[in-house]
């Protein structure tokens, strides 16, 4: 897999990185966001949504499990599976259908529903670095590699 690491000095850097990712998103991509509580997964998602032109409030989907953004360019589904515990609820809510060729899915805490989730195109790992953060992107599929290559050029 293709990998890339970078330092995110502050929240503004995380938001800017999200906006840079947004420019390279294509329909169908699934991005897993790994990292502990408070590391910046939702902040990065907010940066992506801002980059896609969404001006509204970006809520953490911790309780709803998903927030839906139907944008002009793309439908974006932002999951936070921290409180996920019911495979049946997952099926009944139709979440599987959210993963399709026309949508982009961002998934916080994918490890909580690993057995149900479609595989990612890119896994993104956020870790603390003093008061700042480090990010590592791992592109897994051809679509993920194209996205990451574009991001690096
Ligand atoms: P998570 O979704 O991973 O639980 P949040 O995005 O909700 O985390 O919260 C992240 C916190 O870290 C916010 O207070 C945000 O301002 C801060 N933050 C985000 N990126 C950085 C960064 N690169 N350096 C320092 N603080 C950051
Ligand atoms: Mg979060």
Automatic annotation (TrEMBL):
The main location class comes to cytoplasm
Q: Coiled-coil stretches, from where to where?
A: none
Q: Which domain of life is it from?
A: Bacteria
Any one cellular-component term (Gene Ontology): cytoplasm
Checking InterPro entries in the record gives:
P-loop_NTPase, T6A_TsaE
GO terms, molecular function: ATP binding; metal ion binding; transferase activity
- What are the recorded Gene Ontology BP terms? tRNA threonylcarbamoyladenosine modification
Give the record's keywords alphabetically: ATP-binding, Cytoplasm, Magnesium, Metal-binding, Nucleotide-binding, Transferase, tRNA processing
Pfam families in the cross-refs:
TsaE
* SUPFAM superfamilies assigned: P-loop containing nucleoside triphosphate hydrolases (SSF52540)
Q: Where in the cell is it found?
A: Cytoplasm
Q: Its family?
A: Belongs to the TsaE family.
This chain's protein is named: tRNA threonylcarbamoyladenosine biosynthesis protein TsaE
Q: Which organism is it from?
A: Sulfuriferula nivalis
Query: What taxonomic ancestry is recorded?
Result: Bacteria, Pseudomonadati, Pseudomonadota, Betaproteobacteria, Nitrosomonadales
